[in-house]
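Posting for a labmate who doesn't have an account.
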Amino acid sequence: MALSPEVEQALKEFAVLSRFTVSGGVVMDLDGTAVHEEDGRTFIPPPVEFGLKALYDRGRPVVLNSLRFPLSVMRTFGKEWLAISGSPIPIISMNGSQIGYVDRDAKGELCFDEITAFPLTANEIDAVFAGVEALLDDDIRDVLLFYYPRDWRMGEIIWTPVAEKVDYVKEKYSSASSVTAVTLEKLQEQLHSEEICMIFLLVDRPADDLMAYQHSKPSSFFTTKGVDKLTGMQVAAEQLEFELADSVGAGDTPMDSFLSGVGLSVHVGPINLDFRGLRNTIRVKNSFELGDVLFSLAGLQEALTDDNEKPLVREQGQ
């Protein structure tokens, strides 16, 4: 799939006028951006795989910035991504609330190594809980509360107020580690007994057949005050020592606030997003075309580097 001349020109200008080849990185959302879902299967499209491999080979850091929780990343395509990267995968998970690496432990099993996390406060948890009580007081019973403890091994836990729906919810949301229908008092106790990174509140309707991490309405997701995908990216950039103004970000929904904090913002898909890159903003049709963008960036990295591997980057105005 050939990129448009406008996109090719924007990539060339960004690579030449920024310091991407020296100090830039790539930050990407997953669902709808770097990975594709078709017929119930989620996979990394071949163009994305080729583009990623080329960037990794040229030393550019790649960070995943997703609503998914660590276990979901690991179970879905952790092995495949590690095979591409050849090194631990930096991830910003759960809307910026937990940051770390997907790696392998001493036994060769996939694991998550946390760098830092930003759990909800007790008052913030109680505020969400009050919203649940209000829904139930209005006799809205098809409420689901998804919560994600800081302990990544616990994964995704779903609560329903209707005990008879437990099996239905388990079948519908196969990403969940467990589904519970405990009393409200017990639910509140459980929420306070763990450090909770993110809560997702859903009024479950028959037409809604998406996994929790695929919803893109910001008001349904709760993280601690001031934490989102943008702040998560800023922490990751500091840890990995790359410059955001020289970096590329790719996303596809209004949740992808980090697109306003990178040098080149890549909007994937049909949604008109308000986020603009610090230097430029481009649009591509889908994850397959994003793969071509990644491969083109890797080619530009090579073209702007001499035989001694010293980047030949011209600053603006030179």
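Reply:
Got it, the structure tokens are right above this. The first strand starts at residue 26 and ends at 28.
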